[in-house]
Write a structure and sequence with these properties.
heterodimer, A: about 120 residues, mainly alpha, about 55% helix, B: about 140 residues, alpha+beta, two-stranded antiparallel ribbon, two-stranded antiparallel sheet, 2 helices, about 45% helix, elongated
Chain lengths: ~120, ~140
Amino acid sequence: MQVNLFDLATKQSQWLSVRQSAIAGNIANVNTPGFHALEVEPFDKVLDGTRVAIKATQVSHLSGDAGPEPVSIRERADGPAVLPSKNNVVLENELMDAGEVRRAFELNAGIVKAFNRMTMLVSKG
Amino acid sequence: MDALSTALKVAASGLTAQSERLRVVSENLANAQSTGPTPGSDPYQRKTISFAAELDHPNGPAFVEIAAVGRDDTAFPTEYQPGNEAANDAGYVKMPNVNVLIEMADMREANRSYQANLQVIKQARELISMTIDLMRNQS
């Protein structure tokens, strides 16, 4: 049971880190002409596990994605770009998203901490 | 690579780009009155800067890089200053095509974008330290 929860928490914190790096890319490119904002696929899609990944059966195999990153990033399908530069990054929305990531990450870390304490309490007696 | 340290690097590339932009703005402002060296010659030409997203991998992080530092080709305004050493035969001096208001607006925008990137760095650091805190205080 706990193992499952820790696994879930790991997955979510990975997803949140990828999301944070997508937000960082959007904010860094806020003045880049023609740049389209990137977004991360929703967490329930990640949990579905519907994505097919190639399994590495030998140590020398290279994984298709860099590292243990089971989350895909895609271009945000937004309305028409309002700026003449065809850049659809809205700084305010990105900062809101960043705040959301922070809150979710804090909650995640708090839950993991509490569960770890409980596990330790049980195992140490 | 760890996604959070990637976020730090992406934001750092944003900081570099925006500070380079601020440098161009300061060059333009500093040379807003720089006339040419010889009679009738061209004065300082306003510099422009543009950015491009650097995607090495479709799923990879979107770093930002400086695409080009170019020159503004708009016409130079002329002023009647017969005493100036850059004045032509009729007494007119070509002034730089720098509009101080535009430069100020550009400076503000660079400032805001720099702030946003700093905010990202701050937040990524907080997330990392929250994760490290999981290992702390466990006697």
